[in-house]
Design a protein that fits this description.
The complex is a heterodimer.
Chain A lengths: L3 E3 L4 E4 L4 E7 L4 E9 L6 E6 L3 E5 L2 E6 L4 E6 L8 E9 L8 E3 L3 E6 L1
Chain B lengths: L4 E3 L2 E4 L5 E6 L6 E7 L5 E8 L2 E4 L8 E5 L5 E5 L8 E8 L7 E2 L3 E5 L1
Parallel strand pairs in B: 2-11
Antiparallel strand pairs in B: 1-3, 3-8, 4-5, 4-9, 5-6, 7-8, 9-10, 9-11
Classes of the chains: A mainly beta, B mainly beta.
């Protein structure tokens, strides 16, 4: 059973602060890792992906991956009220059974307080 | 448009009826996926297409669900004899190829009365 675990939140941070979102996964065969943002009533929007251990930065977003610990995180710097949404962590195998489908966590709800 | 297009955006139907949901992927994307998201639940994988072939149908919940893809482009998800537990948002995603990031359409909200 492949599982992706996220704290459901809500995670509340003040405007301008760093928001830290965490995700753990159970399938050691996972090779690709994604963060999606989902506003209420909308579909998921890809914001970051990471394939290798370490950090990957894109604007205010940094994704961090530690395959040994089976841990992925997303940091949002200078958080804005418009960042308030549910953040979904997703993992993907690229070989073997169940390849290519994304396995999603249930998401962390982030609230940025003005 | 440039994104994944799904239709209809909303569908209300009576229990026992058949429904067809359509997905038009991003042009040039060879991989196409169907997921569903039930109220308060996570996204659940249904089926994956590479071209017109479906190498992974493992997520289809019952034989009432089927899908096809033609011309390496448009896909249709069909649900026969709908049940109330089929009520969900059905999301389609596409990617350039199998190991590239997936981009989602706006979804079809299906309500079974």
């Amino acid at each position: 059973q492949k599982e992706v675990e996220q704290n459901s939140g809500p995670l509340s941070v003040p405007e301008g602060a760093i928001a830290s979102l965490n995700c753990t996964y159970s399938d050691r065969g996972s090779q690709s890792f994604f963060w999606y943002r989902q506003y209420s009533g909308k579909s998921p929007e890809l914001i970051m992906f990471i394939y290798s251990n370490g950090d990957k930065e894109d604007g205010r977003f940094t994704a961090q991956l530690n395959k040994a610990s089976q841990y992925v995180s997303l940091l949002i710097r200078d958080s804005q009220p418009s960042d308030s949404a549910t953040y979904l962590c997703a993992v993907q195998r690229n070989s073997g059974a169940g390849s290519y489908q994304l396995t999603f966590g249930k998401g962390t709800k982030l609230s940025v307080i003005p | 448009g440039a994104g994944v297009s799904q239709s209809p955006s909303n569908k209300v139907t009576e229990k026992g009826k058949d429904v067809e949901l359509r997905c038009d992927p991003i042009s040039g994307h060879t991989a196409l996926y169907w997921y569903r998201q039930s109220l308060g639940q996570g996204l659940e994988f249904l089926i994956y297409f590479q071209g017109n072939s479906a190498p992974d149908k493992s997520g289809l919940p019952s034989d009432r669900f089927s899908a096809e893809r033609t011309g390496g482009s448009v896909s249709t998800l069909t649900i026969q004899r709908t049940q109330q537990e089929d009520s969900a948002v059905y999301l389609c995603a596409s990617s350039l190829t199998y190991n590239q990031p997936q981009h989602f359409g706006d979804g079809t909200r299906l309500s079974i009365l």
